[in-house]
């Protein structure tokens, strides 16, 4: 409470110096032709008695059932066009993190949704012969459909056109206004319609082209409302200094600190020329800037449609977020603008902003505006959700940029999922049926007494958990794969098919070996379930468990000893079929380069810039 009070006190004192800048510096860049009008700022027009200082307590650390709450968000995806692989990558990663946290017994609130206001939305709708509302309905539904195809188990899906969201945005705006951080001014500069953002000339390429969308920015002059971001330079510097884990990975923190150190400028939070948006309170001639609007979706999503829509209610249901998971191209909005907005409104900051890298195609960031996306619907239809989820999480070190090639995709998923994991289960169950009538002869705990494989698996399970907790998803996949490799090595060394032929004590040892290997498979199913949930379910089902039993698993089930003597296994059936391209598909593939011998199709990540 003291920290929030001090922040509010700082806000009040800084009204004497609204831009919070040293006297020997200019608050705004002349290169962007920014000019303040002679209109009085809001905080000078309002009386001091109306300038309230807001302090809002954080939500409870634990849910109603006593479990710790873990709130995870993806960006709210911009609906100017259907989803691309970049959006899918972010959401697959978020879903895996959410599934792992559920295994730990936490009350998870996984939030995703769509950002549906702004000039670009209205333009896209008109280009498709629709009104903006119809357009938003269609594209938002396409995201829901893709998330279903990818086995995304979100808890909340927010649309910024939802009435409950508009109510929260207007209340938040009023709080910031009452705190003296909104004023009116003229702005003249270069505007990127695709980014929905004014740009500094120093950021632009030749012919004033946006570096993200490779298109010229247009000169605009508007009478807008502004948020006094510059007031929060020192508080933001202090936050990043005192809590360096606020922005992750660490190299993203360096980027944010560099932006702040270069000097923060107030930014426009309304648009006079955009009709498709939430009206500014008490000024229906302007709409709220898409970012100021959409970022509030992380809070409005916490409420249910039948609940009283208030900021206090929403915050009490789960705020602050544990992790905002975003692409690095929207890091500035989440790690600079958003924290300052929250401080102004007296709300707690999210615990972490994690900015991951891009997937690329032909060396360029993939995006809807560039028209070079990999279609996720087609990829899932062709290869299935397990393969898509596993490849991108295993092959791209989370946080860094990554590439896609179809040859490597097929090679990886066949080697890891079909061979290392699937084939081990298949041949073990086959031997069990042939020699033990598909029945386990002894408890797995007894079978593994003084067996070093048990110790190896336990160490790898611990390694996987640590990597999941650190959001090192690729390393978590690798740890689980190592468990599979250990199981295969054990199978080859013990050669139970040979021991069964010898009979007697050797056959008894072989029967125990099968129990040990199947226990390894059971643990793999649990540890891999955040990454490939359907594959894990198929493994669990062949081990004789029901769907309800699978849905009830926790991370504690990675402990050795789950399988019991007398359990009957299902018939062996491939849990992951090898991917084989038919001759027609082979003909369509691009020819391999002479230099590498590989067919390179670099894919992309991320978010259109105006996603929140």
Automatic annotation (TrEMBL):
Q: What is catalyzed by this enzyme?
A: tRNA(Met) + L-methionine + ATP = L-methionyl-tRNA(Met) + AMP + diphosphate
What GO molecular function terms would the record report? ATP binding; methionine-tRNA ligase activity
| Record bears the keyword Protein biosynthesis | yes
Q: Which GO terms describe its cellular component?
A: mitochondrion
Keywords associated with the record: Aminoacyl-tRNA synthetase, ATP-binding, Ligase, Nucleotide-binding, Protein biosynthesis
Cite the residue spans of the region called Disordered: 583-612
Limits of the Methionyl/Leucyl tRNA synthetase domain: 204-429
Q: Which Pfam families match?
A: Anticodon_3, tRNA-synt_1g
The EC designation for this entry is 6.1.1.10
GO terms in the biological process aspect are:
translation
- Where does the Methionyl-tRNA synthetase anticodon-binding domain start and stop, copy by copy? 445-586
Q: Which HAMAP family match?
A: Met_tRNA_synth_type2 (MF_01228)
Name the species this protein comes from.
Cardamine amara subsp. amara
What's the protein called, per UniProt?
A: methionine--tRNA ligase
| PANTHER family per UniProt | METHIONINE--TRNA LIGASE, MITOCHONDRIAL (PTHR43326:SF1), METHIONYL-TRNA SYNTHETASE (PTHR43326)
Q: Which family does it belong to?
A: Belongs to the class-I aminoacyl-tRNA synthetase family.
């Amino acid at each position: 409470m003291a920290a929030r009070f001090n922040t509010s006190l700082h806000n009040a004192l800084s009204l004497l110096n609204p831009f919070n800048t040293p006297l020997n510096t200019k608050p705004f860049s002349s290169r962007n032709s920014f000019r303040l009008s002679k209109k009085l700022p809001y905080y000078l027009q309002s009386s001091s008695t109306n300038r309230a200082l807001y302090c809002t307590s954080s939500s409870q650390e634990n849910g109603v059932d006593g479990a710790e709450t873990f709130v995870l968000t993806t960006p709210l995806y911009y609906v100017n066009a259907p989803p691309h692989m970049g959006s899918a990558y972010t959401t697959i990663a978020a879903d895996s993190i959410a599934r792992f946290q559920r295994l730990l017994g936490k009350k998870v609130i996984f939030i995703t949704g769509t950002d549906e206001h702004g000039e670009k939305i209205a333009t896209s709708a008109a280009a498709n012969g629709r009104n903006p509302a119809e357009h938003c309905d269609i594209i938002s539904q396409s995201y829901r459909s893709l998330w279903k195809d990818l086995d995304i188990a979100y808890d909340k899906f927010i649309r910024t056109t939802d009435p409950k969201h508009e109510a929260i945005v207007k209340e938040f705006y009023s709080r910031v206004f009452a705190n003296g951080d909104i004023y009116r001014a003229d702005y003249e500069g270069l505007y990127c319609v695709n980014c929905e953002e004014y740009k500094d000339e120093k950021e632009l390429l030749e012919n004033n082209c946006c570096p993200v969308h490779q298109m010229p920015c247009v000169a605009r002059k508007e009478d807008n409302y502004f948020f006094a971001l510059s007031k929060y330079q020192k508080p933001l510097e202090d936050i990043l200094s005192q809590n360096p884990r606020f922005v992750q990975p660490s190299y993203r923190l360096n980027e944010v600190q560099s932006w702040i150190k270069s000097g923060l400028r107030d930014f426009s939070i309304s648009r006079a020329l955009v009709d498709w948006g939430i009206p500014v309170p008490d000024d229906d001639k302007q709409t709220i800037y898409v970012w100021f609007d959409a970022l509030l979706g992380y809070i409005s999503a916490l409420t249910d449609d039948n609940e009283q829509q208030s900021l206090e209610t929403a915050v009490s249901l789960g705020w602050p977020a544990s992790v905002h998971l975003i692409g690095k191209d929207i890091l500035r909005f989440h790690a600079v603008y958003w924290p300052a907005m929250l401080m102004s409104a007296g709300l707690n900051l999210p615990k972490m902003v994690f900015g991951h890298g891009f997937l690329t195609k032909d060396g360029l960031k993939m995006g809807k505006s560039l028209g070079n996306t990999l279609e996720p619907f087609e990829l899932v239809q062709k290869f299935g959700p397990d393969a898509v989820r596993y490849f991108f999480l295993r092959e791209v070190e989370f946080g860094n940029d990554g590439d896609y090639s179809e040859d490597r995709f097929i090679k990886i998923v066949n080697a890891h999922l079909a061979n290392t994991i699937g084939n081990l289960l298949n041949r073990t169950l086959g031997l069990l049926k042939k020699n033990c009538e598909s029945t386990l002869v002894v408890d797995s705990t007894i079978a593994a007494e003084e067996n070093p494989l048990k110790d190896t698996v336990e160490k790898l399970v611990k390694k996987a958990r640590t990597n999941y907790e650190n959001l090192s998803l690729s390393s978590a996949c690798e740890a689980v794969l190592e468990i599979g490799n250990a199981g295969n090595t054990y199978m080859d060394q013990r050669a139970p098919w040979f021991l069964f032929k010898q009979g007697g004590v050797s056959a008894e040892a072989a029967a125990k070996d099968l129990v040990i290997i199947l226990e390894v498979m059971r643990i793999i199913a649990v540890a891999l379930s955040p990454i490939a949930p359907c594959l894990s379910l198929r493994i669990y089902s062949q081990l004789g468990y029901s769907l309800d039993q699978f849905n009830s698993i926790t991370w504690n089930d990675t402990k050795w000893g789950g399988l019991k003597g007398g359990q009957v296994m299902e018939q062996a059936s491939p849990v992951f079929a090898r991917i084989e391209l038919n001759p027609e598909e082979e003909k369509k593939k691009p020819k391999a380069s002479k230099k590498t011998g590989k067919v390179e199709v670099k894919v992309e990540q991320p978010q259109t810039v105006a996603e929140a």
